[in-house]
Specification:
This protein has 292 residues and is mainly alpha-helical. The protein has helices at 7-19, 27-47, 51-56, 62-65, 74-83, 88-103, 107-127, 135-157, 164-202, 217-220, 226-238, and strands spanning 207-211, 243-247, 262-265, 268-271, 290-291. The protein has two domains: 4-160, no CATH class; 189-291. The strands form two sheets. It has a three-stranded parallel beta sheet with strand order 2-1-5. A two-stranded antiparallel ribbon has the order 3-4.
Length: 292
């Protein structure tokens, strides 16, 4: 329950199973799980919210600022384009669920499904109206839409297919095309890995601060992830943790140039003593960060 977006698929799932006439989860178990989740989520929100989450929640102000021009937003128009390309199966499954509910005249389920699907979709797109370099990151925020579509498919659509072979072929087709899409996209992520490995080799054992325009932006896209990805990759492959931070301009990072015993990210500074040595293996506590 650490990611703030987990609230949406959980609430949808809880209400879905409460409403469903053939729910596989007992009502008392579902209510207990909901209470447990609510306590945990509230505790995380009140006491463990970091700078990134606080900044990301500021996008909710767009609900008022952009009213009533929601449908002309770049994020909404881009989503519609992707519905016929990369999000083809999401579009097809969404249409199937709607058709099944309409044919069975289950208006309550249909209304609930549409409200949650479009409510969540608009909350994401209005909070992030401009796509830019975030295009590839939008898929991460759209993942709860899969849960919203998947539950009706599994519990309301597939059980109505009398021929089990047809249902099996349906599932196999979805799985096959999804695997093909992952395979076709792996070349881009392989380039990212190759760039990281090359940079680590050239700058081994250094703590580096640099500007966005000095790295391969067409490969990295979102530089705020660099410190975390370098930490993970270097620790796994070399046994040592490397530090690398990129800002919009090198001068923005001069404040950190003299620091030697802290892990620096775009969202904060963490003393080596605060980090578990099992995952953060910093072997140099004397050399300071240098600007390149």
């Amino acid at each position: 329950m650490s990611h703030p977006l987990i609230l949406f698929p959980f609430v949808f799932s809880a209400i879905y199973f409460l409403l469903h006439r053939d729910s596989i989860i007992k009502r008392n178990v579902l209510l207990f799980a909901t209470l447990f989740f609510a306590i945990g989520f509230a505790t995380k929100l009140l006491f463990f919210t970091d700078g990134y989450e606080r900044n990301s929640s500021d996008g909710a102000n767009n609900l008022v600022r952009l009213f009533p021009n929601y449908f002309s937003l770049e994020s909404n128009t881009e989503f519609i384009k992707q519905c016929f390309k990369n999000y083809f199966w999401l579009t097809a499954l969404f249409a199937i669920v709607c058709i099944v509910y309409i044919r069975k005249k289950e208006w309550l389920y249909l209304s609930f499904f549409l409200c949650f699907f479009f409510g969540y979709l608009f909350s994401v797109n209005i909070s992030h109206p401009n796509t830019g370099a975030l295009k590839f990151y939008f898929e991460n925020m759209y993942q709860p839409l899969i849960v919203i579509v998947a539950l009706p498919i599994i519990f309301d659509v597939l059980p109505n297919i009398k021929n089990t072979r047809v249902a099996a072929v349906f599932i196999v087709l979805i799985t096959f095309f999804c695997c093909m899409r992952v395979y076709n996209r792996h070349f881009f992520y392989q380039q990212r890995l190759d760039w990281y490995r090359s940079y680590m080799t050239k700058n081994a054992n250094q703590k580096i601060l640099t500007s966005d325009n000095r790295i391969a932006n067409d490969t990295i896209l979102m530089t705020w992830a660099l410190p975390y990805e370098f930490w993970l990759l270097s620790t796994i492959e070399t046994g040592k943790t490397y530090s690398f931070v990129a800002g919009s301009a090198a001068n923005d990072l001069l404040w950190a140039s003299g620091i030697s015993n802290a892990f620096i990210t775009n969202w904060g500074l963490y003393s080596y003593k605060e980090l578990p040595q099992r995952y953060f293996n910093f072997t140099d506590t004397t050399s300071a960060y240098t600007v390149k």
